[in-house]
Amino acid sequence: MSDQKAGPAGGGAAHEPAVTPLTEAEQKALEEKFDSEVRFRPLSPPVLIASSTALFVLACFHYYTAGFGILQQTTHRGIHLAFTLGLVFAVFSLSGRAQSDPGRSTLLSPLGLPLLDWAFMIGGVVSAMYVPWVFDTLSMRVGNPSPVDVAMGTILILTLLEATRRAMGWPLPVIAILFMAYAYFGQSMPGILVHPGASWASLVNHLYLTSQGIYGTALGVIATYVFHFVLFGVLATRIGLGQLFIDLASALAGRYAGGPAKVSVLSSAMLGSISGSSIANTVTTGSLTIPAMIKIGYKRHFAAAVEAASSTGGQITPPVMGAVAFLMIEYLEVPLTTILTAALVPAFMHFFGVLVQVHMEAKRLGLRGLSKEELPDAWKVFKANWLTIVPLIVLVAILLSGRTPYSAAFWGITASIGVMAVQNLMSRGLADGIKGTAIDIWDGFILGAKYSLSVTVAAALVGVVIGVVTLTGVGFKIVFLVTSTAGGWAESVAPLIPFEMMTPATLTLLFTLMMTAVVCILMGCGIPTTANYLIMIAIAAPILGALGVEPLVAHFFVFYYGVLADVTPPVALAAYAAAGIAGANAFKAGNTAFRLSMGKALVPFVFVFSPSLLLVTQGFTWPLFILALSGAMLGITALSAAFSGYLTQPLRAWERALLAVAALLFVAPDLVTTLVAAAICLPVVIRGVIGGRAAAA
Q: What ranges does the record give for the region Disordered, renumbered to this chain (predicted)?
């Protein structure tokens, strides 16, 4: 591999040492290093067979119910949770760290699993199934739990805390413990946070025996929708859809300046439509795009940042959106098509923002695109692999038809199995093809079920947090605290703003959004996007609602800022995974990735003040939409130029300052401020035109 930095003419001096694409084993190791959710331990043969069978049965259970009918609500959720808890303590070790060999079978570790793991496994399964088992008589005991009810609920809560710690680390269990402590010690809380307090029995009753806690909407969505789409994503990737996306992106975008970086953006956008994991997306596409970016002359940290910023965009890209789309339809009680439509423009704006910055960086450095010989032929790629896109077309078509998401997932999975069978039969013949298909289904179902374990225990534990909020009414108190604080700031700042450009009410909303954004990012640094979203809609979304923000808009706001945590130091896991591929400084890569993701940071403020950007909100009009969209695009472009120091030519310090100020005015959805921003940009544009003509002459 060449390690030359090539300019427009293809020449250049030696720059960065060559970086070779990662092997499949290296990709897996890197993903495990930065993503605790896939850090599965090796198992002894008997436990491996038993756990693999249980995972396959769990996947078959969900595949069957998606096609032929979901069970009674509590029963369905209980079965899913029982399987998950039994499996978590089999596949995740006590330390949470990767292991090279399965443990030896001893008296204290039967079949290589410590007795503590067996105890948690049995306790989790029994306590999770207890509520469905006694469901018919439960209505007579809610509010007056029996000692057995309290004991079973206590066991389940303890088991969930430990299961989530193993799968995801300490942050979410600590948050859940703090919320339970708040509920229990309510009388000792200071000021407005004081409340009568709840006994342990009444707390367990609310969290365990009602639909407001562990068995609530969060777990229901995972067991009803999310599992199926995780399984679909695994099978779709297995038949080659992910590789098709990468090859098509290379063919379409690779020829332009800084080609591999644009391939990274486009391929991550496409792959993100079926993958909900920022880290998995980063490792999968980054193993190819990052070495190519470094090869043509991008700095290592910048190459890593491009891939990380692009890959986190997968969580906001329809139709899967990192599973949050399905949570939204339950909490907002709107059709999935409404959520997917609302997500289109903000997702586009994120990738537009990254694309503009990589283009300007390429122009500033004089980087070339890939040559024709280095690129695949788009038509040949599609002709050879068109069959792999059929399952996605089937999935989207059924979603748009108005049928249930799990029905769409069922047919998408079925189509994936069909494509898998055709591929095996064509390449191996009848007997070997049937055998190969059976093996692929077995492996795909097991892997899909494995990937669902961590998100299930997280959702169940988030049910504890949500349950405390509904039990204590702390959400209303937080709303009062935040809005009163923001209102005080607004009254202090309003007299300082000239021409009354912003009213105190607008300033109050702005300060509230800023505080909410910071909290979302901080929460997202320790817990995954899905859990962060669930907690923030219970706490932060009501704050925005109190200020008149439409529920759909409030949910999208907290969701976007939760996703941003994946590229926000000090816990920017997607950026750190990309830095591992690039051999770059991880913190520097994280800072750059955050800068590249500014579209994701700016656009939520735009659609709060101009909800028309989401297309389906109340009061939508095309003039308002066009004004908001054009302002956001111009603002992102201006800020990109200010950061990179290049527009059509290198920028001077005063020009970068003007563009930065103009960018902030552009994103304000108001015609006057947009025109003022354009006037501020005018001197920079004029100098650029004059400079371009002089260079051409």
A: 1-20
